[in-house]
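Retro notes, item 3 of 5
We never archived the inputs for the guanosine-5'-diphosphate complex last cycle. Fixing that now. Sequence and ligand:
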Amino acid sequence: MKNISQEMNDFLHRSVDSHVRVAVTGLSRAGKTAFITSLVNQLLHTSTHDNLPLLSAARDKRIVGAKREPQTNMMVPRFAYDEAIDSVSLLEPQWPEPTRDVSEIRLAIKFKSNKKTKKLFSSTSTIHLDIIDYPGEWLLDLPLLDMDFHQWSESQFNALNGTRKVLAQQWLEQLAQLDLDAEADEKQLEHLSKSYTEFLHSCKNEGLHWVQPGRFVLPGELVGAPVLQFFPCQFTSDKKIIKHSYLDLLKARYHEYQQKVVKAFYKHHFASFDRQIVLVDCLQPLNAGYDSFNDMRTALEQIMHSFRYGRNNLLKRLFSPRIDKVLFAATKADHVTPEQHANLVSLLQQMVHPAWQSAAYENIEMNCMSIASIQATTPGFISSPQGSVPAIQGDNTNGESMTLFPGEVPKKLPGQSYWQDQGFEFVSFRPKHHERDEPLEHIRIDKALEFLIGDKLK
Ligand SMILES: Nc1nc2c(ncn2[C@@H]2O[C@H](COP(=O)(O)OP(=O)(O)O)[C@@H](O)[C@H]2O)c(=O)[nH]1
Ligand SMILES: [Mg+2]
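Structure as it came back at the time:
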């Protein structure tokens, strides 16, 4: 039997546990893998380094330590943290391999509370942090839930302008050969779906982001499944649909996709998140041009519909969301000189403004900031005929050292003239050399953490 003092001791050292699920999303290449790698790495170093001064619990030295824990959801792949750290720690550092599916990692953070009530009950508290990486492309599918096959087809054909139309040529030619009333041949459907999927991929390669259905470009475990084999087609809304015809099958697959893929995602993943960070690479479309920039805005607007809980009956019917904080972060801030960071934030703010308003109305706290998860450059100055000008220095992907001023980030959504007058010179840098016993160099990951989980570490 335990004696009283031992019981007292156990009681005092009992840990108060809590649990928080943070979703990390963003379109592909936005920087999700880099962000999660850095976030985990930073937290694992809190006991030995002062690397997170903007996270108040770390600044006040209340974090005892953090460790990885086995994840609870056995159905979701593990986030490849070790592999990511291996690649940035190479003699010639490389960016982590891109991931193509949802993945998850779990950390336990032990901390000393600064709340009187909590202190009374235990000396330390533990928060179990689940971090979920999922493709932003999947959020682009939300509007599909509100559209039948005819409406969706129409919306896709309406969007076939400019670059999209050019890229769609091959698929359109094949589609023109298809008799929608003929008895469906699965092989033929597979062939045309492949052609449609290739079209969506080529849109992405051209710097366009708004692609539907989002799973077609990032199928994850569904690769090759018939539920990802359909495409929009042109027909009148009152058209009689012949049983077993191509149109009949396309409609059925679209319906299956809506129910089994899109709806299931919102039910099983989205509903369980507490906090969300949306990563946005504003620099890539600045580099690519006007069309790419506007297309990214459209894609972001679609993504943000997922946060309009209150006004969106569809989402209300599906689940009762519990996200109470959303952070928008402009990634890769180390690509520009530090005095441009403020512009980067105001540009992002303008991009997400509509969502911000509706989120505020729903009592969801929102914030915007600029970050660099894994710093690849060092800021400094170079002398020029105009005097000393800010610059960044880093190694490009071939390992050559470069010092440059990449350009000014516009403060507001730029018009076409921005690209005619100045534009933006974007260089891909490789990560800085990293020693395994040191935390990764970052910009404001601590500020992001403070917003996302600071209140849970009190
Ligand atoms: N300079 C810099 N580049 C970054 C940073 N984060 C990501 N990148 C670049 O963006 C690419 C895509 O990042 P990744 O995290 O794989 O994007 P994901 O598709 O959203 O997971 C990387 O390969 C890097 O080239 C960063 O903090 N700094
Ligand atoms: Mg990734």
